[in-house]
């Protein structure tokens, strides 16, 4: 129930600005219904007039007048529908646009924890299936709901005004129709919600598989992958079948009941004529009129039940989008301090972190990175190197202790000023679709070509870019095929050099690149850390032997620290790590 409230609130928020358009759509749909309800009375009267004219010489002119009114009713009803559709298509596109914009903006403000804990495919589903479902439902449901409900009420009212006995014959099957509609709609509701969840799970799985396709192929895991996929697909199929069955079966059932109703109306009308309760022309007119009415009060039941599927999908989508809107955002510390140029450096004081409450990853870390110095963090995989980087950039906040820049807790700076001054070169560097120029100038949109070239030269990637036929204007495809992993890191280093951050975190990617690129990365790294305060997360120890200080991390605690030589002299854990790597090289 609370979830439905959430969905309605969501719709209210995005439809409220369009209240004038919704009002106009309502007015025109009511006008259309009015003429639709009026038309059968003209139809009945036309039959009565025609029968009178044929049997006892009634006036042909009055028959023609009624036929003209009948045609006018149909025309005006269609015109009103047309106007509603024009208004509606316009405002629903606008409302959907605002929803899409808000979702994208919200994602920009979300914490990294959200992205760590939600699969990409599921997030993508919000844009594809959920927003699409909402758009489809808004387009069809708003008009149809108003039109069909008013048609239902209007038809019943007019029927009883015209002839109570005929009206009673006509509504004979109504209780059964309502009962069936309610039972089946309840069932459909359950399975359509399930269908959405299963589709989202399937999307998440497919997305994950696509990302890991190379691993799947190299390990010959295609078969397992297909087996796993079958389970997700089977779950979707099962929910889809039940959802579609219960919502789809309503349509033929209602049609069947409507046809049965025609027979009841004809029988009822014939009885009234035979019992001499109405004249033959009036009776025939009533039969035609009530067949039309019988159709027009069953039509809303049929339409609403087929709309139900659409509405349910939209409500489920709205619930999910509303929940995303409620997600915790990054605390941007809007009223915080601005970070001034670094004077002393960075300190980690007794820093602990657990991504979850029950498992601490870092335990009381103490590190100082003096201004202009390079501190390298080394340690076995899973020791917490990347986690430290996540903390300095405030992707996550410390569970205990404090990280300070020039003595001020980094939580006191505005997030923008902190992030503008802390540059990051990730191990798995990302390139975006666009030109190479745009990719390097990503953090400094107003950079000139000369500045971009200069950064690329220092990052050892200029020669490669120049060798491409379109140079800096070369378009990079979405998955960055133009560049190898190492080259992507060089692009990322060039990007960082251009923004010239005060403090740098560099997660080196030398572990899976060829020796030539490795050397280039080494030169680029030396260039980017020159005269800069930096943290280097090192996987290959020979890349950081010149660091001013090396922190050796093991199981989330600092085991040893010192210069390369000091640590070798210790003959401890670092010494062993280094010797192992040298032997391997
Ligand atoms: N977002 C996260 N949520 C929960 N646990 C995490 C998250 N990121 C890392 N961890 C856990 O924290 C521990 C330290 O991970 P981290 O990535 O910091 O290690 P690392 O030293 O950088 O490893 P590697 O050398 O393999 O990159 C690991 O046990 C990992 O499972």
TrEMBL record:
GO terms for cellular component: plasma membrane. It is found in: Cell membrane. The chain crosses the membrane at residues 21-43, 63-91, 141-160, 166-185, 249-274. It comes from the Bacteria. Keywords: ATP-binding, Membrane, Nucleotide-binding, Transmembrane, Transmembrane helix, Transport. It is a multi-pass membrane protein. Residues 346-580 form the ABC transporter domain. Residues 23-313 form the ABC transmembrane type-1 domain. Its main location: membrane. GO terms for molecular function: ABC-type oligopeptide transporter activity; ATP binding; ATP hydrolysis activity. This is ABC transporter ATP-binding protein.
